[in-house]
Specification:
The chain is α/β, with parallel strands linked by helices. About 50% of the residues lie in helices and about 15% in strands. It has helices at about 1-20, 45-65, 85-90, 90-100, 110-120, 135-140; strands at about 25-30, 70-75, 130-135.
Length: about 140
């Protein structure tokens, strides 16, 4: 909860008032599809990521009138150092890819594209939303 929620609350307090003073800004919270699914293995992680979705919606409502947008990105498994244990295990990776509609895990630049969109004026009429970038896992119901 400290890393995944409290840090976002702290960062919000540091940056959003300055954005509001300018009358414009965009905050993108990185969450996870873990917040959309239950888990008997990493339940606390999922709870913290679900809290990010709620934080995003609340902040969007609170700060939208002052020109600040707040959105989330919820990635699936991505080839990062943080997830190294999941994608370096060949059997685990094979199982993951077999249940992912795109049959692979994500690359960091694919998440960066969603973040860039949400941070840019291209998404100027979007706030309080969560963009899922997971290769189709959620749509597959897995």
């Amino acid at each position: 909860m400290g890393s995944n929620v409290r840090s976002n609350v702290w960062l919000r307090a540091q940056v959003i008032p300055r954005m509001a003073a300018r009358g414009k800004g965009s905050v993108v919270i990185i969450s996870s599809i873990g917040g959309l699914r239950g888990s008997t293995v990493i339940g606390a992680y999922g709870i913290s990521k679900a809290a990010d979705f709620g934080l995003c919606r609340s902040l969007a409502g609170e700060w939208g009138p002052k020109g600040v947008r707040v959105n989330c990105v919820a990635p699936g498994l991505v080839k990062t150092d943080f997830a190294r244990a999941l994608w370096e295990d060949e059997e685990r990776l094979r199982r993951q890819c077999a249940t992912t509609p795109l049959r692979r895990i994500g690359e960091p630049h694919e998440i960066a594209g969603a973040v860039a969109y949400l941070a840019s004026d291209a998404s100027a009429f979007m706030t309080g939303q969560t963009v899922v970038v997971d290769g189709g896992i959620i749509t597959a119901g897995v």
